[in-house]
Design goal:
Layout: E1 5-6, E2 11-12, E3 17-18, H1 22-59, H2 64-85, H3 91-116, H4 121-137, H5 142-161, H6 168-290, H7 297-329, E4 337-340, H8 341-353, H9 356-361, E5 364-368, E6 377-380, H10 382-398, E7 404-412, E8 415-422, H11 429-432, H12 456-467, E9 470-476, E10 480-488, E11 490-491, H13 493-499
Parallel strand pairs: 5-7
Antiparallel strand pairs: 1-2, 2-3, 4-6, 6-11, 7-8, 8-10, 9-10
Helix pairs in contact: 1-2, 1-6, 2-3, 3-4, 3-5, 4-6, 5-6, 6-7, 8-10, 10-12
Length: about 500
Amino acid sequence: MKNRTDSASGLNRFTLHFSDQREMKFRSYYFEKTRLTTRVAFLLLTLLYGVFGYLDTYWAGDYLVQFLIIRLAIVLPLFVMVIGLSFTKSFRKYWQTLLFINYLVAAIGIIIMVVLLPQSSFYSNGMMLVFLAGSVFIGLRFALASVAGFITLILYNLISLNMPEMSLAVMMTNNFFFVGALLIGMFASYYNEIFNRQNFDLYLQIAKKQQEIESANANLEKKVEQRTILLDSQNQELYAEVERRIQVEEELIKAKEDAIQSEKLKSAFLANMSHEIRTPMNGIIGFADLLNEAEDENELNEFIEIIKKNGEHLLNLINDIIDLSKIESGILKIHNQSFNLNQLTKEVYDLFVYDQHMVEAGIALTYENGLSNEQCHIITDRTRIKQIVINLVGNACKYTDEGSIHFGYTFINNTLHFFVRDTGIGIDEKQQEHVFERFMQVTLDNIPKRESTGLGLAISKTYLKMMGGDIKVKSQLGKGSEFSFKLTVEFDDEKNQIQE
């Protein structure tokens, strides 16, 4: 038995069985593959049996009625039943048994016809068709087809021996052909089943390989997906790093440009400061030497006034430099206190209304307060506010040769809106964004050089930024300028109530 087993497929060539779970799978596979063939085969057999029934009218003679009963009442109903049952789900459970029974019933019917009319080759030929059809046509497996064939052959011989009409010569002749047909059918059925089983085993191997390939593909796709995700993540990190480095590089370039620009501005500022400081110092020293040479009291007073004016200018320069130094070093602090804002605007007005340039040029200086004297007590850094206002009004005086200067404030939702309007020379639109930068007064070509350090606006903007405010400018060349700033402040309700 062992040497009859196909080692490659595990198929036993004697029993035509697989030695493992493939046997049940093959039977299911064989049923699905053969069901349609079986259905068509029985349909053809039904038609052939009908044709043979018609031929019985020529060959059956006195046995016509009996033969038609066998065909129409017994065999054909079984064929039709198989065709009908083949469409049911339960057909799979008993289909081989049903085919086996139909084989035997059809064979017994032909045996009876052969025995009753032994001299007619028509029915013996029909018997050989039964052997061949049962083995290779209707889908009966080799083992059952072989058993059914041998049972048919035995029944033929048993019935023939009990029939006196059957001669030994005819019986032997029929046996020769019947055995030949049976062996041919068995041979065909055997190798047909081996072929089907080998194909099925090959199908299983292909399916297994396909499954392995699909599994490998799935694993490969999963790995590719994981690698893709990893690469995407690395690419994103790389892009982020590149962007960060580009940003850092841009920042470094900008910082370098700013440093170069700052260095240029500081150099220009220092050169300008040297000139600015030497100018009042020369005036002070020069006219101090001339005091002893004054011819009269008027000339002496004139020299003293020049010395005083140069001293004030020098003091302003020193104050600006000190403020800038405090800002640069970060030691400048904001000190909030309660004060009367209207009093502050009056002090600024008094400071400039009698300015020599204002008087000589006939420039009108006016101001307005947005609150009454009883309600104008606010809490913020008075010193810085006054310095900012002085810087703005002072700049307006320096760059206004005729017309007027008007300053003041309004209050909206606890926000101080301060403004200074003049009819001065104005500022070019392209230069307006630079006027609040440090040292820019010494670099703006379209602004005539006047007695200024170029620090007042920059210092004012820094003060406002420290206090949470902001400053802006609107200007037209030849028509004047308006500087304004906004600052959120608190009201001193206690002093305002006392005033009430």
